[in-house]
Amino acid sequence: MKDSRRLLLDSLKEHAITGDTSYPAYSHPDTGITDLRRSFQSVIESVGGECRFVADPEAARKHVTGSQVFLTAKQVCSYVKEIAEGNFDAETKAAAQQCADVDLTIVRGELGVAENGAVWVNADPLRHRALLFLPGNLILVVEGRNIVPDMESAYARIDFTRLRSGYFISGPSKTADIEQCLVIGAHGAKSLLVLVVG
Amino acid sequence: MKSHSRLAAAFLKQEERAHWHDQALWYVREKRDRMAASVPDWEALRETAQAIKRHALANLPRYLEEFERNAAARGAIVHYALDAAEHNRIVFEILNGRNARLVAKSKSMLSEECGLNEFLDRNGVEVVETDLAERIIQLAGERPSHIVLPSIHIRKEEVGDIFHEHLGTERGESDPIRLTRAARTHLREKFLAAEAGVSGVNFAVAETGAVVICTNEGNADLGNSLPDLYIAVMGVEKVIPKTRDLSVFLRLLSRSATGQPISAYTSHLLGSRPGQEMHIVIVDNGRSEILRREPFHKAAFCIRCGACLNTCPVYRRSGGHSYNYVIPGPIGTILAMHRDLKKYKDMPYASTLCGSCTAVCPVKIDIHRQIVLWRNEVVEAGYLGRAKSAALKTATLGMKSTRLFRTGGWALRKLLRVLPPFVFNNRLTVWGKSRDLPKMPAQSFRAEYRAYSRRLTNGSRSGMNREGQS
Asked: How far apart, in whole angstroms, are the C-alpha atoms of residue A63 and residue A70?
């Protein structure tokens, strides 16, 4: 008796799809965006996040350490030490559940996408990827030169060969499941700051 | 089983709610329109998306094997299930093997289709839906009424009652922010205690073995990143060839679904994380049959955005629960018919055939055309019902004979002017339920047209071009 895998794959060989079934040629979309930074910022703000441009890491440090979110956070987990020191070392924790009370995570974003305000975060440097979703507040630090116009440009720059998990994060978590009222802060972060350095 | 029209009538009895439902969904449709209009190449993008689907689905065995190979190389364990029962059994065996009794589950229409929750519940596994809407539905003991907005039919006061009963919120609380916060606290406990996470899949990339999941709440990510056991369940049609194809589908999906530029979280999971076991269950459950069925195979292109529901004048005014299939609305109709022509025979008639569904579909499925073709199948199979069949047979007779048609028209024009209204507006004529007949014209269209042509011919003598007047 053949196993389900073989039966399933065999049954998919026959199909009714007609016409041109070749892989289509397509290229970068025309997003119509001229000012990448302004578009990036305005989309993030339209989805409930905050986006700040700072000249250098020193200015970023000043902005973060002076912010209400940082000052009121009891547990801060930082992976961008030159911008802010954390007081919670998640790398020493064996289980992700031990990070449940972190209030703020600061982590690098590798890319920013101008068309939709999404930031690409490679979670592999984090022992616990849950740190991106558990805390009430998230700060993503992106270098100014890494803002790309569209998703296609973004994917062209991401190396998937050794990646285990990566996320496009656009704004804080949200839901409109109760009568279509938008509520910021569902299960993940309630606030998101994207800091563009340089 | 009650028919769509009966269930719709029940929904419409609560006028205020029905109106709200209609307006709320139209608002989402308008957001979608604004987002689509902001993308210069929107139509070309839809074409490309369909071409990628056509290519991927025509080469599914190859891409599934490539996906399996790459996912397995990164440590994921891949399973294949021919049908719902096998899917449920596999998921249960994985859970049971690790002694997992509490599952944090993220929204998956596939698992709804397979009845996974009920199956696990019967086998002693507690499944907690973690998407807010799904949790509301689960606590209320209902099923989703929309594929993207599952609790769109429930009002905030009712959510308040449900949460008061199950989560202990204050009686009468109906503030969406406070209710959402209560759900966050309640579900956070479940996330931290869960022994396994289960979620659906939006896209599976053959080239890398990546599973891609789009959510706004972040629930799928907590379900993946906390427990040491994670199971992703997907239909065979979710696989796409290359990473760059994601750029096409992601540009379309959220814009079409909720009018967002992209969902808050788009997660790419490539194999298990250290210390975790990751399983991927690939399910057919009728999809291969859809793909083999000309001219209906395009139903398998669907990326489950729900745009056709939001735009459908019938869906908006009748509610998702008026459709008997697990997926309601236009796309639900053309999927249900593959499942059981007889059982869902009323669904193709829950349509005005206006074509709005086809116009908004991000992968350009010809939904309304398929609905017409399914009506043919229903008639051919003899499932139409005696009254409707008789009416259609009479109509066919009249339409076939010029003389009968003319005489009939003449007689009706005279008779309906003098007959009392109850002849049309009675219990037996469903068309008369909420409509009156229009005023009868003095003469037939044919006679009107003859007079019109005569006027034109006379006019053309004074230099008018008859051809250009049509």
From this structure: 10
What phi and psi, each to the nearest 5 degrees, are found at residue B308? -70, -25
CA dist A79 → A113, A122, B465 (Å): 21, 12, 78
Domain ranges of chain A: 30-197
Contact indicator for B264, A49 with CB cutoff of 8 Å:
no
CB contact A2 to B (< 8 Å): no
Amino acid at site B166: H
DSSP assigned state of B302? -
Choose from A14, A26, A131, A137 for mutation: most chain B CBs within 10 A: A26
Instruction: Please count the other Cβ atoms lying within 10 Å of the Cβ belonging to residue B363.
Output: 23
Tokens read off for B422:
């109850």
Rounded average pLDDT per 10-residue block, chain B, 470 residues: 93 95 97 94 95 98 98 97 98 98 96 97 98 97 96 97 97 97 98 98 98 97 98 98 97 97 98 95 98 95 98 98 97 97 96 97 98 96 88 89 90 85 76 79 90 85 48
How far apart are the C-alpha atoms of B107 and B127, rounded to whole Å? 12
Q: Which of B281, B303, B222, B256 is nearest to B53 (CA)?
A: B303
B61 three-state secondary structure: helix
Residues B226/B229/B235/B236 CA torsion (nearest 10 deg): 120
* Residues of A in Cβ contact (< 8 Å) with B55: 21-24
How is residue B398 written in tokens?
Answer: 């009249």
Residue B204 bridge partners (DSSP): B211, B239
Please name each of the domains of chain B with its CATH number. 1-38+295-384 (1.10.1060), 58-285 (3.40.50.10420), 387-465 (no CATH)
For residue B264, what are the CA distances in angstroms to A49, A115, A163, B186? 10, 14, 21, 21
What's phi and psi for A107, nearest 5 deg?
A: -145, 155
Classify residue B136 as left (phi > 0), alpha (psi -120 to 50) or beta.
Answer: alpha
* Single-letter residue type at A133: F
Cβ–Cβ under 8 Å, residues B197 and B232: no
Whole-angstrom distance, CA of residue B379 vs CA of residue B257: 33
Interface test with B, best of A165, A169, A182, A192 (most B CBs within 10 A): A165
- In angstroms, the CA A74 to CA A102 distance is 8
- H or E element at residue B135: helix B132-140
Share in percent of chain A as helix, strand, coil (round to 5): 25, 25, 50
**Given an 8 Å threshold on Cβ–Cβ distance, is A8 in contact with B236?**
yes
Q: Name the CA radius of gyration of chain B, rounded.
A: 26
Picking from B59, B191, B266, the nearest residue to A167 by CB comes out as B266
Which CATH superfamily, name and number, covers A30-197? Answer: NagB/RpiA/CoA transferase-like (3.40.50.10420)
Query: Is residue B14 within 8 Å of residue B319, measured between CB atoms?
Result: no
pLDDT tens-digit series, residues A132-163: 999 999 999 999 999 999 999 999 999 999 99
Closest CA to A166 of A116, A126, A193: A126
Q: List the 47-86 stretch of B: residues with Cβ below 8 A of A.
A: 48, 51-52, 54-55, 57-61, 64-65, 74, 80-82, 86
Collect all residues of chain B within an 8 Å Cβ-Cβ radius of residue A116.
261-262
The DSSP call for residue A47 is T
pTM comes to 0.93
Decide if B132 and A177 are in contact by the 8 Å CB cutoff: yes
Tell me how far apart the alpha carbons of residues B61 and B141 are, in angstroms, rounded to a whole number.
Answer: 38
Distance CA A155, CA A8 (A): 31
